[in-house]
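Data availability excerpt. The first of two example chains:
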Amino acid sequence: MKNSHHPKIYFQLLFIVFLLTTMKAGAIEYKFNFGAADKKGYWKIKHSTVYGPTSLFGYDMNTVPKDNDPYFFSVTLPEGNYKVTVVLGNKKETTNTTIRAESRRLMLENVKTSPGKFVTRSFIVNIRNTKIGNDDSVRIKKREIGKLNWDDKLTLEINGEKPGLVEMVIKDVNVPTLFLAGNSTVVDQDEEPWCGWGQILPRFLKPKIAVANYAESGEAANTFISSKRLAKLLTKMGKGDYLFIEFGHNDQKQKGEDRGPYTSFKKSLKYFIDECRKKGGIPVLITPVNRRSFDENGKIINTLGDYPDAMRQLAKEENVMLVDLNRITKTLYEAWGPEESIKAFVHYPAGTFPNQSQPLADNTHFNTYGGYEICKCVLKGLIDNNSSLKKYIVKEVWTFDPAHPDDINTFFIPPSPFYSLVKPDGN
């Protein structure tokens, strides 16, 4: 009996065989063609190529390229670091493309081409799942279920005023990894208008290092450990990798005789440092970013108690590099002032987003502009510390001055299509 699905099944079996073969060889490479003409050696992607149970790659999240709207493309892949190389452009029209990966990690920002011109750009994406060995896993929160950071596929968001994706090549690569441990100010926020500085970081690094952001909203240093996020991270860490550690916001809310900045907090941070060094990694302490809280003279009020000082103290004791983000963001916020700084945080009047009946007024969490500027502050701290990571930082960041932040009026990154009015944990 003839099976009408036979060609599709055959196609998928062929791809699975190819996947298993390349995995065994330790070299994965996929080539996709999104253009009108076929190209030898490339998988032709059509509107009907949809990711799902019967397809290991294709358009995802119920989207396809249409009317310059953002769309998603996913590929089933094992955990690891992948170099993604894209060709962008259009024979007849100008293009302007922004690409995010996984849970809204910014990879490429407003890449423009003129008619008939094409450009090639590369970036590194880290993908992971929750498994720790064969019989354990990260204790993720309910809000993280279904999050694109915790699955066995690579997902890209193709966005922009006029997206111009023509080709894509994905290869597994062996590069250093920069791991991030932190809270909601660092995390890859899934939905607009929220943004952690960690999800901006890949944008400002050369495609020779991966960013693996394990931060999560609501986490303190000790809960990051107890939820087994650090345990998972350490299974992937190798010699020469980096671990950025920023906590304090949620730690300061913990009560009890055994809780405090110079006791339990320092003890947890020292555990991060010791375990990282056991793996041959390089720990970096980052003091907690300031909240937006001004006094009557326009100066930032310290709302984090002794937690930044405890981290400074530990950095000296353990001979660990310290990025004093707390001090750098004091300079940044005071340069903005009380009114201008609002534009960097999630402050939006009712009706700004679909079904938003109440205003949003959050002085802890950033929007994309805020996350973008805070990320530059972190990189500025690395440069000023003469970190070995300097060689990976793109040159345009080297001249950034927190006392003279980028003009909000000239800043634009197209928003992702998904929104949430729910404040992150730990607000």
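And the second chain:
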Amino acid sequence: MRVKKEPVTTYARRFTVTLIVASIATLAFARGNLKELTVPLKYTPQEGVHTTSADVPPALLAQSVEVRVEDARNLADPLVIGQGTGGDDKIFPIHADHDVIAFIQAMVTGISKEWSLKQDHPAARTLILQVTRFYVDESNKALGSMYGTEVKFAFTLKDARGNTLAEGTGNGTAHRYGHAHSPENINEVLSDALKEAYANVLADPGLQKAWISGTASAGTTTHAAESAEERLRKLDDLLKKGLITKAEYDKKRAEILKDM
């Protein structure tokens, strides 16, 4: 008996429909049951959508600077960079795949070069950026997701002797509609917000005036830098009094020794 074969086009059409149905089912399952999302951090600013550049006067560019990034987020898990919602509206955490502060340090160094800052070590100026927020929120929609992110820096500018010249904050935000649970879209909005926050730090009038003149801006208290020995003694005292944990002690001690 001869078996009637289906035309190739019919078979291909059926296979395509089956594949689409399976993909939709898989996507729906993932959107409704995602427990966490890990994002490989990449610097991917979307200049065509969100253009940001620092308004830096030439006199500021003449002074060398060392930019240091520190973590001030006070998170139980320093790899957490946000949260999202699945198809069932359950909230899940969004994690970075590696050290967030190291990533921001590398990106800020690259941006500084892009904006022609004279980076050096030792330098005439030290700009300390404390990261108080580096967070993205993904809101699940019928098709795709809405991403909103915020990056916040608390900055301190010091001279070569460690005297504080200026203090302040710089914020950046970004919002975009994109694909659901997309690491690419997350990196885009985080990159845009990071670049904007850093630009706002450098655009701060008090920082610019102090950076150029070398004198403290109005409202900034100038104090002599403590020696490493004094800082270590104070750190020992905090540990003895139980005001900090051993882990916090070890981390701060390593930072002090690094600055010596």
